Structures are given as structure tokens and as C-alpha cells.
Amino acid sequence: MDHLSSNQSLGLSTEQTEKVLQFQELTAIEDLTICRDVLQRHQWNLEVAVQEQLNIREGRPTVYASESRPPAIVSDHLGQHFYYSPPTDGSGSGFRGILKTVINFMLNMCYNTVITLLQLGRRLLGIELRPRSNPVQDVMDFIKMYEDKYSTEHPVFYQGTFSQVLNDAKRELRFLLIYLHDTSATDTDLFCTGSLGNQEVMRYINQTFLFWSCSADSDEGKKTANAVKASHFPFLAILVLKENRMTIVGRIEGYSDSSLLKQRLTSIVNEYEINLVSARADRFEASINRSLRCQQDEAFEESLRADQEKERRREEERMAKEAEIRQIEEERLAEEARREQFAQEKINSLYKIPAEPDALHPDAVHVVFKLPCGSRLERRFLKTHSLESIFYFVFCNPNAPDCFEITTNFPKRVLKCRRENNEIIETLEQAGLKNKEVLFINDLDA
């Protein structure tokens, strides 16, 4: 309801609104404004608008693309079927008919020569000529004229340019049937009502061909007539992909009744169906080869990725091993530096150890130190010496641990031998050490 109200607010009728919604559903274009603009550009013809969008999506040129010249096609002069029927009023028979044919042939030769020279001169001079009319509009005008004058029951007309239908027939591997309409030809009306309007003929054409038609009087029709060398009307040309080129393999000029027309079309199709079968087989083989190459490429890429992953892992392992070696070396060097620092610190701390008093000194305290390694140290200190003195005595000994604490035997207590936060270190006497004492050295790193 929101879509309907938004379109009605733009001044669209109910019928136009329904076409906008149908176009949106068929093309999946979300913006309703774009849908409206496309339909307006095509005079609200839903089929043509959808055809243009499908052409664009499938990589074809837009149906309103300008074309400076008709597409190149090949005529199989030796192998093609050629059927000619003179006009039913007898104007094409006898001397008069021969003379008319010769004159038409000469006129066509002159016309083609002049057009070729003009196109060559235009290309040499770099002049770009704008088309006088829209090629798709020429086709749509013919379809409208045909339905208004004859019947809406007819083979399905291709709604696009001659170039586009050639591309589609080549891509889809279909026979292409070209009909050029000349209103001045004697048997045109009879052919349209009696032959193209026949149900069997319509069914056969729809099942077998892409059917493209245009008036020979329009610009698009004239360019097509020049490309297929049409001389007598009604004119039909059958094209098929042969040796990878769209080739004219059959011509039907003049009037053919419905049964004769179907017979002639069937004869041409039966002979050249092998070309489409061969082309389909070639495309299938090419598709299989592309699929195999794609699978091989995927397998190669997968193998390459696996090799790259293995190489990446090996590189990571190598780098990790090198990092581990560097870390071990750094730790070793750091340990050596720490030991050298400790050794130097022990050397520098020797002056902090007071001289050992005489054994008979009344304030002498004999201290025995038991190290973690089992060895013993003995030394005398004065009661007035600080506990820091016994610490440096142990610290400077080579057998002492790097980080240790000194404890008494009983009661067990840790002696504060290092200065922390500007604390005053106790003397041996203040710490309760007198006469002879046994102290234990505990390794804090053990």
C-alpha cells in the first residue's frame, strides 16, 4: 500500500502503478523512481523495458545503444539453400521479370558500392554520424504495425536490434530467422496472413528459431537488408553458427504458402543442425576443459598454500628456536654479569668488615656460622660491632650464598643485618649475642 500511495502521489494512473510494481518484481530493482523512469523512457511498454534490463544484466548492449553500421555476417554462397518464388501476379516471370531482376541487381550493386565508399571516407576522416532513428524503435514500430494490420497471433518477435539478436543466437546456439517486410511487395499481405499466421508454422518457428523482423523501409531494416543482400520480398534468411561465425545458410525469397514454408525451413534446419550439435559439443568440451583447468588451478593453489603454510611453520619454528637460543644466551650473560657484579661487590665490601679482636679481649664474641653447603666459618667480633659486620663477613666468603638470611639457633629468630628505610642496625650485644654463639645461614634462593 505504501508503494501504491507513493506512485499515486507522483501522478501515476492505476494501470501505470501496476506496471511499475510488475517491473520492480521482474527486475528486482528496489528504487521505484528508477522503475518509473525506465518505463516512461519506453512509453510504458513493460515487455520492452524488461527486455532492456535483461540485456544489460546478461552483458548485452542496451536496447537503445546506437550502432553506426550493421553487424558483419557471412554468406555461404556454395552451401546455402536458395528458394525463389516469383510474384503470384506474374510480374516476376518472362522478360519483364528478368529485366526487373537485372535492374534490381544493378541498383543494389550501385547502392552497396556508394555506401561502402561513404563509410570508408567517413572512417578515414573520423566523422561520426548519429543514427537517424532508434533501431529498437524501428523494430517495435514494425511489431505494432504488424499486429494492427494483420493479427496479434504470430511467431514471437525478438524485441531488440539485429545486432543483439545475432549475439543471442550465437550465444544460445539457436537458428536465427530474419524476416524483412516490404509493404509494396505483391505477396506481402498474403504471406503475413496465410503463412506466418498459420498455427503449425508459428509453433515450428517458436520452437526452432529466434525470430527477428523489421520493415525494409526503416533505417534498421535497410541496414539489415544490405547486410543479408535482400533483393525480393517477402524475404526470409536463415542464419546459424558455422565455424564460429553467424552464416546465412538459407534464403527464401517471394511467397511460400504455409506447408511449403515449413517444408523449406525444415529442410534447411535438418541439414545445418549438425553445426549446432558440433558447436554445443565444442562448448561442452571447452566447458569441461575450463572446469578441469579450474580444478587443477584450485588443486595447485591448495598445494601452494599448503607448501607456504609448511614454510611459514618452519620459519616460525626456526625463529622460535633462534629466539630461545638468544634468550638462553641473554640469561647466561645476565647471570655472568650478576655474578661478576656480586664478586665485585664482595671485593668492595671487604673494608666493611672490622678487624678481628684478640681472643682474650673482654668484649670478644666468638661466632660460629654454619653455611648451607655444610662448611663452618668462625670469627670473633666485639659486642659493640653491628650486626651488619657479621653480614659482610659471611657475604664476602666465597662459599656463602648470594642471597641469605642469618638466624639464631634457639629461640630461632632472624637477625636484621641490613639497613632498611634508614633503620638503626643493632649491635651484637643489643641482639643478645654474647660470648660464644652459633648462627645459621639460610639460602633464600634455594
TrEMBL record:
Cellular component GO terms, alphabetically?
Answer: endoplasmic reticulum
Name of the featured protein: UBX domain-containing protein
Q: What is the lineage of its organism?
A: Eukaryota, Metazoa, Ecdysozoa, Arthropoda, Hexapoda
Which sequence ranges form a coiled-coil region, renumbered to this chain? Answer: 305-345
Gene Ontology molecular functions: ubiquitin binding
Q: What keywords is this UniProt entry annotated with?
A: Coiled coil, Cytoplasm
Q: Where in the cell is it found?
A: Cytoplasm
Q: Which GO terms describe its biological process?
A: ERAD pathway
Q: Which CDD domains match?
A: UBX_UBXN3B
- Which is a Pfam family this sequence falls into? FAF1
Q: Which SUPFAM superfamilies match?
A: Thioredoxin-like, Ubiquitin-like
Q: Which domain of life is it from?
A: Eukaryota
Domain UBX: residue ranges: 360-441
